TrEMBL record:
It is a peripheral membrane protein. One of its GO terms (cellular component) is retromer, cargo-selective complex. InterPro entries: Vps35, Vps35_C. The lineage of its organism: Eukaryota, Viridiplantae, Streptophyta, Embryophyta, Tracheophyta. This is Vacuolar protein sorting-associated protein 35. It comes from the Eukaryota.
Amino acid sequence: MITGDDDEKWLAAAIAAVKQNAFYMQRAIDSNNLKDALKFSAQMLSELRTSKLSPHKYYELYMRVSDELRSLEFFFKEETGRGCSIAELYELVQHAGNILPRLYLLCTIGSVYIKSNEITATDILKDLVEMCRAVQHPLRGLFLRSYLAQVTRDKLPSIGSELEGEADAHMDALEFVLQNFTEMNKLWVRMQHQGPNREKEKREKERNELRDLVGKNLHVLSQLEGVDLGIYRDTVLPRILEQVVNCKDELAQCYLMDCIIQVFPDDFHLQTLDVLLGACPQLQPSVDIKMVLSGLMERLSNYAASSVEALPNFLQVDAFSKLNYAIGKVVEAQVDLPASGSVSLYLFLLKFTLHVHSDRLHYVDQVLGSCVSQLSATGKLCDDKASKQIVAFLSAPLEKYNDVVTILKLTNYPRVMEYLDHETNKAMAIIIIQSILKNKTHIATADEVDALFELIKGLIKDFDGTTDSEVDEEDFQEEQNSVARLVHMLYNDDPEEMAKIISRVRKHILTGGPKRLPLTIPPLVFSALKLIRRLRGGDGNPFGDDTSATPKRILQLLNETVEVLSDVSASELALRLYLQCAQAANDCELEAVASEFFTKSYLLYEEEISDSKAQVTALRLIIGTLQRMRVFNVENRDTLTHKATGYSARLLKKPDQCRAVYECAHLFWADECENLKDGERVVLCLKRAQRIADAVQQMANASRGTSSTGSVALYVELLNKYLYFLEKGNPQVTGDIIQSLAELIRSETKKVESGAGSFISSTLRYMEFQRQQQDGGMSEKYQNIKMEWFE
């Protein structure tokens, strides 16, 4: 085994020998001594016969020698100028003792011979390329042929060059390069077998460093004048691919396929696509075919983007179908290709399609369908890498079109999503929703809603045996909030179609389970209420009574929907939504429907809401909603009002009772409705609230022996309620009542330093301000209240 130190030592010795012989060769050149120049140049070239150096070090030695040979080539040119026969020189160098120095000298003099025009370039090139077969050592032969390619590169008889020669001379040049390429590739491939198996990985690394020596031949081919599409299709490409396929070497196949794609013109690739793609299934299974095909499709995509005139050519040669077929054949041929590999191939095809044929949606759907066909044997993907590839695959059309409605037209899109595991499916669903929200995409038909919710069903319901309890709570909340925001993006100006949308959304959302429903039903309800307001604002229902888009039918649907919440322990939310629906029924003058909603609200309050704080909140909502209801007749309103006041009196804490009872006073007074102004019952409510506040005061005195600051605050709140109804014109609220309550507040505040002092001061300042108004209206109402105690 060669060590690094040995390698350096041998290289140093070889370079020293090269320098010494190069010195003597140069001295012979300077003295025009041809014999010595050939002698020392042959000795210098003999250093390249070594088998001790690694390819990397051999490359360094080769570069040193090739630099010195330039001066020898120049010397040969001068010799021919001084009358020396170039043909004789060509024969003379063939007397060198060793084959390797002899062939290097032959290549050097051969390049001069071609330039002399004493013989056709074709004859010399054929002679040189054939004689180089004599060196079959992989490393030495590879560098020899590299030197041949180097010295003849600018001397090929291509069209337009000074060495053009006969009409078919460019074909001879082509044949020379192809033959040299073939032999170099064979030598390069054989390098992998030079040495023990334990060093194979090292040899492959060294081979990889030398790949450009072989690839330069393809670059020369691409630059040859006269190599048109016909020659490329009929001669160049078949010969190159034959060598690529037959070498059966992973490294060579991968590199050379990439070289072909990179060095030859785009239109050549497009016109010979079937030939190039036909070689792909014949490559070794270990070849990274993804890199090859992705490079090809990227090159073609850039070609299409840079030239509008090229687009018809893509359709003419049916590039998409050929690529799709070729990828299918590759996947079929490489039975060990993992799912991530096949998905990656179709991802590259999809990106190509979106770049070149974005207007042909059926092409995009066809790629999705091909991917589904390949995944059908795998079932759900458990490979994280494959799942990420699927997400990228599905995200590509979203990013291109920025329109989920377009995606919904792809019939195979949901079929691809079926292969994702539950978590990845949810992640993809969130990406879809984010696209809708970002681009403000409006889903406008019921069929689109069905298709969309089929895509995001991973967020809508559980499947694959998973449950909500397995999900992080914060993540779950964020997911369902995304669904809630999505509901508001579903809209159609046509009320009938909008009603269908709401019905379809309801069908999907109700499958969500007890943990999701409290988060997803509210946006559905408010979307439906928005539709009801639109219908109420129009000139009646334009569709007649037989359609679903009537306020009554929508409210009946909401009644059934909200009822589900009470079954999943979300009673407080259900009560709030019932009251919202009751308000909508009131606006639409549907008394029976509004009564039904209030009845259910009361049942929930009585049977399901037991927490004292929740009861207070719920009761305030009930009172506030009932106060705005105008649709009820006297009997129904009295019944509902009586129940609300009854609930108020039964609250657990006395201060809560007091506040709820004085809030009930609003139920007997409505500014805009004269028949809902019962001043006497307003005062009765306020007096009842004051009695409860008195009871709070008495309990405080009994337990602590002093006045309660909390009861004083209740008195001040009551005073403000009296002032409110005084200003609203309630004749039953008199100055004496207010004066009496104010005196009570003053007496209580003398007993203890009240925490409600600022509240009291603000109220009294307001009263004094109203007394001093000059408009005459409000001031008169406050004149009957004596303010001497204010000081």
